[in-house]
Amino acid sequence: MVTDELPSAPHTILEWFHGYEEEGRLRGFKCRHCGLVTATWALACARCGRADLEETALAATGAVVAFTILSVPGDDFLNDAPYAYVVVALDGGGRITGWMPTVRDASQIAIGDRVRYVSSYKPGVQFAKDAGTPSTA
Amino acid sequence: MRETWVVGAASNRFGKMKESARESATRVALEAIRSSGLEPKDIGHTFVANAFGISEHQAHVGPLINGGLGIPEVPSATIESACSSSSAALHEAIVHVGGGFEDAVLVVGAEKLSHLDTLAATSYFAIAADYPFETKNGATFPGLYATLATAYEHHYPTKPEMLGSIAVKAHANGARNPHAHFQKEISMDTYLNSPMIASPLRLYDCCPFSDGAAAVVVAAKEFVKQPAAEPLVVRASVRTGSVTEMQDRPDLLGLPATRAAAAKAFRQAHLEPKDIDFAEVHDCFTIAEIFALEDLGFFPQGAAGAASLEGTTARDGRLPVNPSGGLKAKGHPVSATGASQVVEVFEQVNGLAGSRAVPRTDVALTHNVGATGGSCSVHIFARR
Known about the structure:
The complex is a heterodimer of chains A (137) and B (384).
Chain A: H1 13-21, E1 26-31, E2 37-38, E3 53-58, E4 61-70, E5 83-90, E6 95-100, E7 114-117, E8 127-129
Antiparallel strand pairs in A: 1-2, 1-3, 4-5, 4-7, 5-6, 7-8
Chain B: E1 4-11, H1 21-36, E2 45-49, H2 62-68, E3 76-78, H3 85-98, E4 104-111, H4 118-126, H5 141-155, H6 160-174, H7 188-192, E5 196-198, E6 201-202, E7 212-220, E8 232-241, H8 256-269, E9 278-280, H9 286-295, H10 304-309, H11 326-329, H12 337-349, E10 363-370, E11 375-382
Parallel strand pairs in B: 2-3, 2-4, 9-10
Antiparallel strand pairs in B: 1-7, 1-8, 4-7, 5-6, 8-11, 10-11
Helix pairs in contact in B: 1-2, 6-9
């Protein structure tokens, strides 16, 4: 029996946390085979199944593809509600979920809005409106 | 595959239980076995669902339930698939019986959450999402479905009354179901005036935290000589999976696991959506019922909201959906939900549904989702 060496993940989930909490950057994976970019930890590509992922830097800017304003938060965010929970399509590929402490009402956000990842020691991946580009709202 | 039947089913009243999940599971299991005409000693295996049993400081509850039933030597296993745990357990039972490994198998799901406060219960639910990549970024369970709702409403203009009509219908049905957590009708005004939990979802878009227990007995046709009740013939039993994380789903306008499960189930049953007389679908939030109705193929994409508002899915509509009251009004004791959907089909088919009876009960579908769609079960049942 021929046993291929198991692939190692380009980074661990702890390193992913470290990336945005301490280093102020978003780490992701890129599939060398099909090009899928993802923020989610994996050993193989969720699209093509190949175990050929490499470390890639994710862009700090992107556009909102879905959101909600959460009035009843989870326990890490008790003192922060209401806030926006967002899915962001990052420039250069990959989507990531995060939250926006300064967006507190549905009238302040729309699908397509430009946002920027802001490094912070608060919990979670935090975004703010990107002042550099106008809102599509 | 041997022909496999659901021969017995039972549920307690959902809501707040004084007793533990273990006690309530044992009680409904005995009731389900008695309704089948079988004896506990006929059971060859027990599949238990109790996803949040750890909150009661109890794991490995299956042997305790079997012990309580007087059959401690019968093997058991706990199946965890978040909100679809007991429909996943049902699938295992059908595989065991259909494959000839056992003649009769017990499925029992139970959950108790009422000893937790809302924050603790919300936090337990949220760990069924991707904890580091979703929950730790601020997601809650309503928040994830609300995020999907926003994406859906961006593509398909959706009036609040469309979601509201699903909540109003659920409560109208729940008011006629003695098993239901909420047995009270609500008006559209009550719905529209309820507070936002996670925009666009209001309080009355959300299912409650419920305690509850439900059980189902599955047996081979050839094993059951004289069924005590009209059995449900299993025409399809399907489980599917999909990418859990919303950030990795290219399409946020429905649940891919449901679409895959529906396609496979209708193929397995040699049936089409138009053949279904009524359905119990996973409406943890009103938007989830819209997704279910479209992903299962009952309505085209973008059309289920208007159809609901027109009454198409009411008890007397073209396709009655959730005559039990659904997760929304009957309640959602996570691990009991999938089994309780089958209890509703069993009661409808056996003329036990009282004033919530639907007009036609020849073919029924149940649909149960794990969390935000990382897992899905679809079952199709027919009369003999």
